[in-house]
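Chapter summary example.
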Amino acid sequence: MRLQLLTEDLPAGELFSLLRKEVGCPMQAMAGPSDPVVPVLLAGGFRCRRRCYEMEVHRTGLTGPMEERVPLTACSRGMEAYDACRRKLYHYYRETHEAVSPLTAGEAEFFARLPESALCQIENGKVLHFAFVEDGEIAYAGTVETRSFPSFAQSLLARQLRTHDTLYFECDDCDPAAMMLKAFFHTEEKGVVDTYIFD
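The structure predicted for these 199 residues follows.
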C-alpha cells in the first residue's frame, strides 16, 4: 500500500497514533532513503529498524581473491541435507528478524518460497552454514556459527562466480551472514530500502 497524506490538518504523530489504535498492532512502512515520505514517518514517530541492500555484484567488485576454503555440499529439494538447511534457515531467519518484523509464516509456507537448490557446509554430520541459490541469485544464506561463516561465504562466492558473471542478493543489516557476504564486495549497492516501525 502506498501512503498518501491528503491533508496536513492532523499532525503525523496524531494520525499514526490513531491508525495504530485502529489496526491494533505495530505498523510497518518501507521506503528508500530519499523517498519524500521518510521525514513524515520520522516526524510521526516511526523509527528506522532495518536497512536492506540490493546487491548486483561481479568478480571485479571483490575486495580480494576468492577461493573455496571449505568443502561445499550441493543438495536439492527432497534430500536430507536440503531439509536440514531449510529447517535451520527458518530458525535463523526468525531469530535475526524478530526485532524488526517477526516471522508469521509457518514452516510449510516459508519452505514453499525457497529455491530448489542449496549449498551447505556439513561438519560432523550436521549442517553448519547454508545458502539457497537459483541461477545467479543467492536467495538466502545463514549459519549456526557466525564466527566461521566467512570461510563458507568465500567458498560460496568462489563457486557461484565460476558459473555466473553476475550475482544478485539482498542483505538486511539485522542479518550477520548477509552483511558478511556484502563485505566481500566494494561494489555500491544497486538499491536501498529501509523498514520503519511504529510501535
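To summarize the output: Strands lie at 27-31, 47-58, 73-76, 117-123, 126-134, 137-143, 166-172, 191-198.
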